[in-house]
Amino acid sequence: MDTSIVGVGVSISDRFRGVVEEKAIRIETLAPRAQRLDVKVTHRAYHNGRMEDETVELTLTGKGPVVRAEAVDGDKFAALDMAVDKLAEQLRRAKDKRIDARKHPRGAVLDKESGSLRGVDVQPASVDVLRAVATGEVPIVTGPEDEEEYTPVVIRTKQFGPEWMTVEDAVDRMELVGHDFFLFIDARTDHPSVVYRRKGWDYGVISLTTQAVPDAVAS
Questions:
Q1: How far is Cα 28 from Cα 20, in angstroms, rounded to an integer?
Q2: How confident is the model at residue 21 (pLDDT cuts 50, 70, 90)?
Q3: DSSP string over 86-147
């Protein structure tokens, strides 16, 4: 695994580089598919009497989603230790999720013997129903084929099936696809939600607190 160290407003000593190389070995054991570890050290000095601090940002890239961690302390070695601990914890959680997903697969599971679906609130149509549709006994109702009204504003729409997941999983999925936001259904509240990227490595969540149709719309 390649390692890159960049200092912003601070010089990088040989001692710090040596410590980073030792930490990189620990990270590589947790993420054997990782290809590169980028370390950014930023020194900040304040003019309002606040003590100076060092920010250490770690970015791990390779085969899979990008993993990031950040820590701040007055000493860059202490900040490095905290950032590595955060990164290691994220890697352990991701590994536990993969193991849990293999043991308890999510989504629809088809029982070949009975033909039933488990994991979703949907049941496949019976052979009799499929035959009735094919022969015309059950008519297929289609909507009116009216032409859409012209508008100079082009609105592109996409529709996706809802996915229930935690906020943490939604952030991981957003990082994986490389978008600035991701729509999902919060598994803890059943509320439609969106996670989005803020400045730095901060994230935000917006949720709809109700799924009921307003009276004005319903009437």
A1: 12
A2: very high
A3: HHHHHHHHHHHHHHHHHHS--S-EE-TTT--EESSS--PPPHHHHHHHHHTSSPPP----PP
Hey, CA dihedral for 204, 173, 54, 78, is it positive or negative?
Answer: positive
Identify the three-state secondary structure at position 175.
Answer: helix
Per-residue pLDDT at 17: 93
Say if CB 43 and CB 10 are below 8 A apart. yes
Where does the pLDDT of residue 79 fall: very low under 50, low under 70, confident under 90, or very high at 90 and above? very high
CA distances from 73 to 80, 121, 199 (A): 9, 50, 20
Rounded to whole angstroms, what are the CA distances from 51 to 46, 74, 89? 7, 8, 29
The DSSP call for residue 151 is -
In this predicted model, what pLDDT tens digit does every residue of 170-207 receive, in sequence order? 888 777 666 788 899 988 888 889 998 877 667 888 88
In sign, the C-alpha dihedral spanning 6, 50, 200, 58 is positive
CB 178 within 8 A of CB 184: no
Which residue, chain included where needed, has tokens 């009276």? 215
Residue 195, burial from CB neighbour count under 10 angstroms (0-12, 13-18, 19+): buried
Give the E-state strand segments of the chain in sequence order: 2-8, 34-44, 53-62, 67-73, 109-110, 117-118, 164-165, 181-186, 192-197, 203-207
Q: What is the pLDDT of residue 46?
A: 76
Dihedral sign of CA atoms 150, 156, 159, 162 in order: negative
